[in-house]
Structures
1.
Amino acid sequence: MDSAVSVKNLSFRYKHGREKVLKDLSLEVPSGSMLVIMGRSGAGKSTFCACLNGLIPHLIKGDLEGKINTLGLNPHDCKVADFARLMGIVFQDFESQLFSTTVELEVAFGLENLGIPRNEMKARIEEALKKAGLAELKGRAPSTLSGGQKQRLAIASALALSPNLLCLDEPTTDLDPQGKDEVFTIASGLWKNERKTILMVEHETEEALQAEYIALFQEGALKEFGRTREVFSNIDLLKETGVRPPEILHLFHLLGDYPLPFTKEDAIKRLDSFLLDKDLSSYLKDADQEKVRGYGNELIRIESLHYEYPTGVKALNDVTLSVRQGEFLAILGQNGSGKTTLVKHFNNLISPQHGTVLLKGEHIQEKGIGEICQTAGLVFQNPDHQIFCERVEEDVAFSLKLLGLPNHEISTRVDSALKAVDLESLKHEDPFSLTKGQRQRVAVASILALRPEILILDEPTTGLDYLELQRMMELIQHLNQQGHTIIMITHSMWVAAEYAHRVVLMKDGRIIADGKTREVFSNGEKIKEAGIKPPPSVALSTQIGFTALSVEEMARCLKRKSA
Amino acid sequence: MNVFLYQDKDTFFHRLDPRTKIFILLFSFFLTIFFKHPLFLTGVALFMLIHGYLSQCLVNVMKLKLPILLIALFSIITWGLSVKGTTPVWGRFTEESLSYGLAVALKLDSMIIAGIVFLSTTRNEEVSSGVIRLGIPYQVSFSLSLALRMIPTLIETATTVIEAQRSRGLDLQTKNIFTRMKRSIPLLAPIFLTTIRTTNQLAMALEARGFGLSKERTSYQEIGFTGRDYGVFGFLLLVALLVSFVLLRG
């Protein structure tokens, strides 16, 4: 078996970094295979990718040790540009990879750099766009494309140079479910049909099931490497390395039924030997109902809300919604379905054009910004868009100072907010030295300090690894139990299923379903209409007659048939 | 959101060689510099507007009408108050000072409109390939077009940061300019850091796609002079002759 990439005893420490990010890592990537690298944030996955084509050490400086062989070249002795025709690399942030004014010219850029003659260029551009499914969009401006299309364009731009190796570093993290699907389909197609070597860093376990090999990184070293099926069957190891186990395998692991089935079809056959616990399933339904009884007064009321962007795009079309105190609401839908536009109305970032928005029974436009932010706090998706102070506590105190609260009140509130997000010990740290997950929690704390009754979170788990994600969701759940009303936008279906009590499905600016999480997820038609896929455990359990909302819940509801 | 000015239309001016378009832009600047009288400058401004109309990009001029009007108003007032004249009109305003202010206003606005029309009819990539053909190194012209490319990203980042800080209770709608400046600090740091991060990413993406690899870089866009371009040059020559004639006659 020959290798496309061969790395031996690789170590790397970033300039100014305290610790080594890669520690004596060795890995062979078989030629013509599809390998997905998984592991916690900070495990060295992206650093590894950047080493392969010399971005490290040529653009990103630091101490590099060990041997790297990428398709016969040693990146240390070559320029990054020398790798352009051998290895394509696609990054998570698709916005900053595209810079041309048409799709066609974007793909042409690399070919121009290689000095390819014009007539040959044309054919190669067309071929690359076809493979990425973008042939129809040749003349469009990249800025007008959807996220999934943009990421496919980044792939096409790399493909045009006909590299043998394509390295995708978290390509789907910022995409909606449809976009994630598109990118995985293209990537696995290139591996299966074109025999390209695909190297991918990814957090999405369910999508990674398509890969041939999985490598688990832990603290800068290779913890495990093997065929997808074998690696994913070791549930304990996955948990240890901070990777979310694939749901179907996890379910049978919990049921203690080995060897673990790999496909949905196998799983259904194997479920024949299990019975549904009718008592428990009806108990769960009752518990859902019980939650509704605990809700308090109506906090937000939206009536026939319309919103049109200056460009004439209708973002919201006759939306009516009511949210009561104590609810935990998830808003789901593709990008462009109007989710973010809707929640921006909840704290008057957008004033209603048509229709009414009532916050605690009063028109929101009549309230001051100080009053609104103490009632409805919106946490933005990217914490880096709001953090600006040199110390964590200062950043959390910022909005309290704006309100003009007395100093002792400020410090009490900052302490309790930091305690709630479990960051007390880091309050004197520089926020920019923290991990993404910690920065996300600083952002939540800075809103929490305002003590808003309603907490609105726009994709609070994007870019977090499984452990950070669980921690974030436990925090949100805890805040909800303490009486905060939670409204959350998410692209992660299992997060919505497992944590939310109520789900609102949006499509093209309209609400197409609104109800208890279990009811909405059992409505296959509406789910499909919204263009989303329920988590495997939810789909599987629905198929056998009871919609369970998580792997654990499903496992609890199943009993082995006595022989 | 598309914040680029470029209008994807197929007009006579869109089809010109980028070098011709650059020449038209420079020529327009010269015209505004040569004239001093508001009457002639009105003619120049009209000339720019006709150019805009023919290349179907007056939409962009309309989009930016507020700054255009403000600049006009500002120069008429400041020059109207500061230039000395002999024929009083009202207060410190004199006929001479008002005429001078109006002339400056027309000059500035004509230049702005000429710039808008240029950017509306010329793609980023065309600007750089035109500039290269004029003998400027590729790296320089590419940096130029990247700078243009970063503007919309910067605006988008700024919009998000403003919204995020408003959600934390930052009120930017205060009248006091000093309070406003003080309150913009929470905006600048995140915008600055996000932009640096984007730029770093962009640099990596460029390198990975072979930027700076080959000395003989090819170009996917073909540019070349056609009859259209020569027609434009002829026309501009005629205008230049006419202008010199008028100027010589006084």
Note: Chain A is about 40% helix and 25% strand.
2.
Amino acid sequence: MFEKFLSFVNTLGRFVIGFFRASGDLILFTAQILLYVFKAPFYINETIRMSIEIGFYSLPVVALTTIFSGMVIAIQTYEAVSKFSAEGAVSMVVLVAVTRELAPVMAALMVAGRIGAAMAAEIGTMRVTEQIDALSTLRTNPVQYLIVPRVVAGTLMMPLLVLIGDAIGVCGGYLVGVTKMDFNATTYLINTWNTLKAMDIVSGMTKAAVFGFIITVLGCYHGFKSQGGAQGVGQATTNAVVSSSILILIFNYLLTELFFKM
Amino acid sequence: MKEKKVRISLSHVAKAFGKKQVLKDVSLDVHEGESVVIIGGSGTGKSVTLKCLLGLITPDRGSISMTTDNIGMLFQGAALFDSLSVWENVSFVMLQKKHADRDAAKKLAIQKLAQVGLPAEVADAYPADLSGGMKKRVGLARAIATNPEIIFFDEPTTGLDPIMSDVINDLIVDCVKKLGATALTITHDMNSARKIADRIAMLYNGEIIWVGTVAELDKTTNPYVRQFVAGSAKGPIKMEVKAE
């Protein structure tokens, strides 16, 4: 019995030490990135290339996600508010839900799956094939060359993606409202416009920037630290997507608390 | 005769990973213009020694000094950047400079590729399109692109057929001589070691146990070196066949 207890304490101890070691490692890695963001040389071409990859090529998946989210919210809201003859609230709920929550969170989860995984796999492969070591021997700092452009691009592009996602999501609600619920198109748009507050857009875009930072830092971190060949790269990819998805949801709550404290 | 300047110096270098002491006490000097090859079996610490020299791993004890930071390195798997073309790989350092002249960089890359026996047409190809031997040659072209004073070679002939291995060995000797560079190679390929080495050092159990010229290699009475050179399973070197 005592031996079992000791074994449990041993396992728990290992887990706690492992958790704090990994957290400390991640914090140091992030600090290193933040330091190099402001330190020359700046790899502008790499940053532009990554911005196109993250911003432009993620547009279709973000557009699809937000348009259907907007449509679903419109239907569900209509179902709920029609019982109280408050159908006019549909446009308002769609706008608030899309700009504050759905567009940033759904876009971030999609980008985590698309970009976070790709970054972990690419950098992880570079690690196990010694390409990152090769960079060091070619007088190039791997963090400055590989990581900083990705993190800068992710942090800058996500708010733009979400801004476009906001517009597309609201359009999704509009389409359902006008075609399925027989709302007057002009009235719907006027209601939407009158409900719109700068804070809704700003909070969503701020969340997006934080999510972009989380996705790219974790994607790069897991790739950079990967070991052991193909299996290690696969594990890094999974860890990148899972950890960034969890952190996105946690930070979404924290930022919502911060912006809309009751 | 005047003693040549020491270019690379390892002094009592030790490195452990967890409980495993990989390097116990490695000391070795490599002189200007000299080509030294470190031989040794798998797991004896050759790669760790090289990584310590490159600054990729920090040793626990001891000191390492090099007289220059203008170095070149040929990796075991060539380690070419997949996303860049062959010429961009070769001229990588030049392209990272502010306002880099891409035409001049490409010209330099083609010249370096010619030096390792590759035609200009290869310049626009991507690493994925190349065979193992061609990748090694491109890796060599990249290693010599900055006219380095010190070049490191990590298992330069591993994974190549005997003829291509000989071609790579010849190229290494040729490039090192033309540049007047100091070279340090790690390998377990004795044919390669004999061809490219001025001096050979044997690493065993985390220590340099023997250093000598190629001629001395064949006359040595050191049982570890004799067993390794003969490639015999019988002798003082015991292979670990079960996990620790």
Note: Residues 21 and 225 of chain B are 22 Å apart (CA to CA).
3.
Amino acid sequence: MRRAVNRMPLPMKDMSLSTFLKGAAIAGLMTLVISLVMVNIDWLGPVYSSEKEDIVTLLNVMIVLSSLVFSIVMVMMVYAIWKYRAKPGDESDGEPIHGNTRLEIIWTAIPTVIVIFAGVYSTIVLNDIEAKADNGKIMEVDVTAQQFAWRFDYPEQGVTSTELHVPVGTQLDLHLNALDVIHSFWVPEWGIKRDLVPGADLPGGDDIDDTVTVTPTEEGVFSVVCTELCGWGHATMRAAAVVESQDDFDAWAADQTKIPDEEDVSSGVPGGKGAGVFDDRDLTDD
Amino acid sequence: MESASIAVGSAHAHEHHGPPEAHSSSKIDRQTLGILLFIVSEAMLFGAFFASYFFLREVSNPTDVWPPDGFELPKAIAGVNTAILISSSFTIHWALEGARKGNREAMKMGLAMTWLLGATFLFIQINEYVHLGFSARDGAFGSIFYGLTGLHGAHVFVGLLLLSFANIRAWRGHFGTKAEDHLGVEVPGIYWHFVDVMWIIVYVTVYIL
Amino acid sequence: MVAALKNPGMPRAGLGFLIGGLFGFGLVVALRAVSGLEIFQTEATGYPHVIVPGITAPIGFLIGLGCFDYWFRWASGAPTIPDDHSQHGAYSWKDYFKFNTDHKVIGIQYVVTTFCFFMIGGLLAMLMRAELAQPGTQIVDPGVFNSLFSTHAAIMIFLFIVPVFAGLANYVLPLMIGAPDMAFPRLNALSFWMLPMAGVLFMASFLAPGGAFDAGWTGYAPLSTGAPLGQSFFNLGVQFAGASSVATALNFLVTIVTMRAPGMNFWRMPLLVWANLSTSLLVVGATPFIAGAQFMVLMDRAIGTNFFQAAAGGDVISYQHIFWFYSHPAVYIMMLPGFGIVSEVISTHARKTIFGYRLMAIALLGIVILAFAVWAHHMFVSGMFAWLRVPMMITTLLIAVPTGIKIFSWLGTLFDSKLHIESTSMLFALGFLVTFVIGGISGVMLGMIPLDIHVSDTYFVVAHIHFVLFGGSVFTIFCGFYHWFPKMTGRMYDERLGRIHFWMTLVGMLGTFIPMHWIGMEGMPRRVADYAAQFGNWNLVITIFSFILGVAQLIFVYNMVVSWRFGPKAGDNPWRAKTIEWLVSSPPPVFNFDEIPRVVGGPYEFGVPGARHAIMHDGDGATVSGPEPAVAGAASGGGGGEGGGS
Ligand code: HEA
Ligand code: HEA
Ligand code: CUA
Ligand SMILES: [Cu+2]
């Protein structure tokens, strides 16, 4: 304890400012490389809703910050292993350094700043993706899940379907309800997910947050994926989500006046209709 | 419940075969601390049921009526029962004072009366269950009512069990005036106070509020 | 024969199990007869004929084994015979199958038993990976797959990670604080023996009609309340495992508070002791909540209550609140003891005192407090109160701060050290720093609501789980196994095999769990036996690496078993560590110490000439510095750095 514990801003006995700067530079470079590689990888898959765009931006910012944290840890660790490794047969002890208040404050403060930033940014993004559409075009759809099938009711159009058809660029207000156990609504391309809770439509279900909004921006056929474990058919509980032009949608809605008969229901059961939404593969022939 | 064996075991007969006496690094006695921590975890168990109570009453209750229409609780009888249980807290305290002061009669009587009061409470409670007219299957109210009072009843039962042991030992002449010699009264006593306090909370939330 | 059934032990335990089961069955039959119900079960009655024996049979086993003999004698007022110490120490392998109150025996019982559960849980994971190697269903049907991951996770969590830490601490903690045993040795033994019972219940569910429990380890209602019989075994098994961990936690707390050696004030306790203090606080505060949650599910199932039945006024989401109020703190129950182990190992092998010791201890307590305020981050997409999300996000993110303090303090410890990375335990400690930071960062991402909305319930979460639980907890467990193996067995393991084990585990672990981040974000949901073809290639890669990971564990088992039997003698203090457990012989004497040691300094005073942590015998207490006399049980000490080499 007699030795000067604190030379530079750092307690390390033989770490000069230049070593420190070198380390910092390596950490910075590593951050840059990791971030560049990671941000350019298409992590989240296709981004086909305006909500998911915000999420992707948030993810990219987080990737940069995380690479920074990870790089700092790695550089410190590898440097220490390289520099302070004991020679074979060296039985002596390290320096009796018990701590350094300044350093401890630094590594409490910096993560605090980072996570507060992450929290504030996330809150802003959350408010954005849950905000009502600017153009005021909102379509209501009642989504009902049941082991292991989906049903979509369009109160305005008076239509019921086992496929989710939506006009592109229109904000959807999905009202979620389940008939038996909890299910979860997710379209990976839209990035939006929310559980469907049994009892949401009952008088006691007022406190259940059962409305989720999403604005699809790209036409195509996607899968509605059930992401909450709901029983043996969970893996195959899918329905098609069809995003189409307003005209196509209107035409489709006009066509759907009757409730589909039994055979047409997307059951999610292998062999049932709707199971085929698994890409190019038919589930029945395993 | 170590005290008896420690008292006998440390007679130095086994000096070189037994473990060394542990250093006591705190003023608080091991068993007292143990029972206090146990009570913390018990309180958390009740906490889980109170959380459920909150959800059933405030969150998923479609009306503002609680208990919902059709459920009637015998507040008065339960009130009397509450008084019985509370008085047993005084008798157990009396027993403990007796043990401390070497008044064996007071200790024995206090323990016996506490046991009887507790048993009376449990008996009235079961009687209430029989005459309530609704069961645990009747709506959310039935479930949480039986859940909370049943959980508490189970604790009374365990408390009675502990008190039975204390009674048996007291009547067979155990327990002395030194602090470590009447832990067998003190520790069940602490637990019994907890059971009483818990009942007051349960009674107030379930019957009154 | 008759004597074997009269005296405590395995035969009587078996008998007790039978009698307990019959008693429970008879009780149900009798009660149903009295109350005029149909005597034998019908599907709708929730199988009380199985559930009640599911409680009474294990209790019968425990009584038969002798867990309660002493207390029965005490309760009936019979004189409690002076302890003849026949329940101390283990002199042959048979003693490990007895009711033994010696914390060192219990520690080994714990470690070995829980490691067996790790192998079982791992085998179930291998089955899962085999099924997932290709899209489509090949080996098991979807229902069985659901049972596989549910039992995999339940066994890993409730029967491996949580109790194995209790086992390691059971062995070393009393030694570390200079106590002759735990505060309540009989309660300690009872805690251990509840675990095999929980295991029996979990396993028995495979025999139940309808298969093993399959609602995930989270057992969300109302899926679990409507599930077949197997689910009840989960509900019951969790009660036994939970009771076991609460009892152990009480024991640790009382031991730490009341039995520290003279001079061992709170700021001289090794960080492992601090870590177990914090963990025990979490257990005492949180575990009752899972007991409550599973009781309610069991009652909904068995007697038809409506806690979670929406149609009858129940609240579906309340299950998740109650469950996560335990299960989030539980993830720190599964991590903090590991932090403690890593602190010991890093300090010892860096030959340096822990950087910022006090802040390390404070950070642990900070995590304990925050842990109770973040549970709803598992429910961001559950449809719970929308207003609760942002506060829960903030507290969740803040947990990165105390955790970061720990990470950076360990790194700070490495600076200006004399780093020895030859020993496998240090390799695992350093590997832990890498993998846990990755897992923690993915946790922070999950904590950010908009990201969680997309990746919740996908393989991204599975990746996070395994980076923190495997890269975090399991790495620290191996770290502890290797570190204290010489102390527990008196023998040295094979470092070369240890290093192979480490590198294979690290590579296997990274290869298995890194790609899961990606397929999760791309759109693969978790808990599925079958998936879209686009994820086929990555899943094959994952499966191959997971087999490497599996084989690596076999090397570990081989190393441990063979070294225990044939390894070279280790010496009392092969790592030249300072804490008290290294100042006694290896394995330690039956009663730990002849005399309680006196603590005279901090636990990690490396490099301070003459500094010592503890003095073993009063005789040499006068001199605080200088070499120690060569008394058995005090092989090394002093700052000079003499003593057994590795
Ligand atoms: C050992 C177990 C363990 C540990 C330690 C953690 C640690 C953390 N976990 Fe994890 N978690 C699990 C086990 C664990 N988790 C499990 C089992 C599940 C799934 C349950 C299920 O559904 O089945 C889960 C799920 C889970 C979710 C829910 C995901 C979902 O289902 O949608 C979330 C969301 O917030 C989360 C967050 C976190 C956070 C923020 C931490 C933090 O504590 C991490 C803190 C650590 C660090 C951040 C790294 C070190 C710090 C630094 C180097 C400082 C600088 C860092 C920054 C500034 C970022 N976890
Ligand atoms: C401590 C906890 C822990 C540990 C150690 C592990 C270890 C492993 N886990 Fe586990 N896992 C969880 C906790 C844990 N897991 C949890 C909580 C879940 C969530 C469950 C849920 O959704 O409810 C989960 C879910 C989970 C899934 C997702 C299931 C799904 O959502 O569909 C997968 C898939 O790959 C998986 C794989 C593995 C693998 C390959 C290992 C490997 O690391 C295992 C390595 C060990 C061995 C292999 C054992 C030793 C070797 C042998 C016995 C010899 C046999 C060897 C061969 C045949 C090669 N786990
Ligand atoms: Cu519906 Cu999973
Ligand atoms: Cu959590």
Note: The first strand of chain A starts at residue 138 and ends at 146.
4.
Amino acid sequence: MSSPFKISRRSLLKISAASGLMAALPMGGAWAQGGAPKRGGHLVVASGGASTGDSLDPRTFGSAYTSVISGIPYNGLVEVHGLGMELRPALAKSWEASADGKSWIFDLEQDVTFHNGKTLTSADVVYSLQRHAAEDSRSNVRSVISGLAGIRADGPNRVIIEMPEANYVFPAILSGFPLGIIPEGSDGRDGVGTGPYKVTRFAPGEVLEAERNENYFRKDAAWVDSVEYLAVNDPSALNSAFQSGQINVATLLDERTAPLLSQMPNLKIYSNPGRGFICFNMRTDMAPFDNPNMRLALKLAIDREDMIRRVSPTVGALGNDHPVAPSDPMYSKDVPQHVYDPKRAKELFDSVGYSGPLVLQTSEAISSRAVDMAVIFQEHANKAGIPIEVKREPADGYWETIVGQTPFHVSARSDRPTADAILSVAFLSTSGNNECKWVNKDFDAAVLAARAEPDLEKRKAFYAEAQRICSEDGGTIIPFISGTVDGTSSDIDGFVPSAQQMAGYRAIENVWFS
Amino acid sequence: MSAFANSPVRSFVLARLASGLVSIFFISILVFLGTALLPGDAANALLGQNATPETVLALREVLGLDRPLVLRYLAWLGNALQGDFGTSLSNGQQVTSLLAPRLVNSLILASSAAVIVVPLAVGIGLVAAMHRGKVADTVIGSVSSLFLSMPSFLIGYLVVFIFAVQLGILPSLSMVRASSSLTAWMIALALPVLTLVLVAQAHIIKLTRAAVLGVMSTDYIMMAQTKGIPRNTIFFRHALPNALSPIVSICMMSVAYMIVDVVVIEAVFNYPGMGKLMVDAVAYRDIPIVQACGVLFSTIFVALNFLADLLAMLINPRQRLPRKGN
């Protein structure tokens, strides 16, 4: 790997990895990676969020179920690993930026074959990436790929990706789970990739079955012989099947039952600190939230520690109304932390001169915790004399008709591989996905300057500035950054705790039966 | 045939078939309207959190969601009458081919439960009736009321908790496929079938008991008793045959209601049947699947109702005879 910021970045990651270590240790019993990896066995994995409409085309991946498929028949160019989300090689064995930072050069691993016997070349990579930007693409990285200046092959083993402006944080984007590489010309529906397991049967919304790819380019992976990946949408069914030993690896378990599960001797529970969050959106272009004092009043009217204690005691990390997680290398410790200050909140609220309750819309569609969070927020704000009225909306259609549409509502954001990705997608004034319609020229300038800055320390300073502006002026209240909870049966070894669920979606190729 | 041509059975069958078809027609309108009125549409649900106005518009056009409702209904009805329920919005497959294996799975689950629950519950109901007011009757009554008052999904979770989590003898996930062996099917079906049996038994037991006791309190039974005919002979030779007709329709109705419970039970046990397909399709706004499932469930319900009335009529000789004046 020849990334230009390798050394300083590595040392930084060590610190964040150490600080995050406590959170990721299994909560019950001893954590022992029992001896050397062993081949063999049939691994049963389960997740919710599946649908009969699921497809093996990586371009369609987005749900809790399909994101995990990405680690079965596919590989991306790069992967993120561990608690610090360290970037590491996958199909690209090394990468480096051009001098001006406007293009990135990826050198591919050689002698990699697809499940159909074809050898991997740069043409396959160019094809696989470009189809995300196609007209009919519904890929959730479409805007990222279509925003590039060019993707081209340079010989059979080199791919060059060009950007309109310098971007020194780009490679991590390619670790996204929809960016699996398929053979040129394929529509991806047959599941042919380069990955550790070949799909033998796929019944959408029911099960995916796969067997080991004997030609897998990683010799120290793909330990189990076969994988059965079940779709279990009912959380109680998932929980009971996991408890009764029918499932070896379960992902996205209910955080509130995790402490109970971790006491069972036949299970190991992993809490991943994570980068996603549930947030309160205030439309900054709508009254009364167009007034920054109103936004600040509400940010000070929430007791974050109490909320974490009651809603996310195992994996919640204190939030500060900007989206960068404390476990992120770009996290700034210098942004003043918003603390619960009922008196100051009330003064600010009164200064706006708004009368009547603020209607806060929430729904199970976000998460069962979203409803609890709204009610707890109401309680905190009422203590400060700020009247909030919680309106519980039906789950059906909540994402379409409420999120990003109404003045004050609960929303959520999933994991993104970098601070840049979440800051750009959710907060840049030019993003179509800026739910609060927040416009701040200084913030935009800081983010754009950061990604174009080759020096790590200077880049961190720009991101710190972006975090500060977002925290002070932004329309999003982020009480805490959430994590996810994964679990394995106690006979599974090799599960590496990560900031993302399922060890950055690669858990299946890494685990073995002890 | 001429006897049949004039028989009340024939006119009954024709009348009921006609009214059944009319019901299904109106149900199809309700199902179509209901699904059209759901907030949010498939385009939004398919694109999820990453939807932008342009992609939503483009997808709506592709899916034909921009056409007027009446036109969409007529086109859908025309195709449905030819057995074509359209293609799934989310994966482009034929709804009929998606539905067929799921329907078979649901029917296997429901009929396995029916085959067990009908004789069992009728038998228990008869025992309760024979021992009216005694300990056996009280115990049967209270146990069946207990299950009657619990929602079916709760019974499902209880069954899972006891047999899968605590005892660990049966799987809580019913993963089956057509190629599974008979033993695998039986193991997978054990808990969902047990749950359905517990859900459906109460009505059959209570109504069987009531039907038999209703006949037992009629004048001709009292006559038989005063003549000194043994109690068992009265019960089995005189009372039971006359109570059979209501019992049969109760059983058919309970089986029909069980079809509704199958939707919930399949979700609890992750059983790959039509109910789970429908629940998932609602969540993902896959309207053609929801519509087809809705119409199919209603058709099964109407058909079982029809069958219940028909059987009740055939069993009761009085209703088979031509009415005077016909």
Note: Chain A has a mean pLDDT of 88.
